[in-house]
Design goal:
It is a single chain. By secondary structure, the protein is mainly alpha-helical. About 65% of the residues lie in helices and about 5% in strands. It has 2 domains: about 70 residues, Arc Repressor Mutant, subunit A (Orthogonal Bundle); about 80 residues, no CATH class. The protein contains 8 helices and 3 strands, in the order αβαββαααααα. The radius of gyration is 20 Å and the shape is elongated. The mean pLDDT is about 85.
Amino acid sequence: MDIQGRIFQSIRPRRDGVLLRSDLSAIGGRSQVSVALSALCAKGLIQRIERGVYVTPQKLALLGKQVLLDKAHQRQAALRQKLSMLQRREALTLTPTARHVDALAKRLGISYTPTFGDRWAIAVTRLAGDDVSSDRTDDLLVALTRAGKLSPTDMAKMAIEHHRMLRAHV
């Protein structure tokens, strides 16, 4: 199935008929998603009612633009709140391993940039229904390993230690 099909498939089961651009981050690259959204709008299958907010024409006719925008803004606010909560939780549970990895990455000037393979793995995991997510420390460990600064064995040991300590804090 192509990106257009996946986008259209993801909007159909939504009760509110609202599709946020942030909902599509795992489907493909930014430009691919933009092209697919434009094509779906041109076909009349979805309509753009605000920057980053798309709806089905049926829901727009049924509920009206303002009601749908209100729902979209509520979802965006909930997503922002969830993100800030996760960031606060991460800041509170900074393990010694996380501090070490952070300092090492800063000293070496290494940061994590997701690859196509990373985005693909996240999308497949999400489609499989699994709730697996990595935190900043996991991402930095991957970046350090890709840069050749850590061996895969050391990365695995540090990741295991980090997650053991996180579980102990919860």
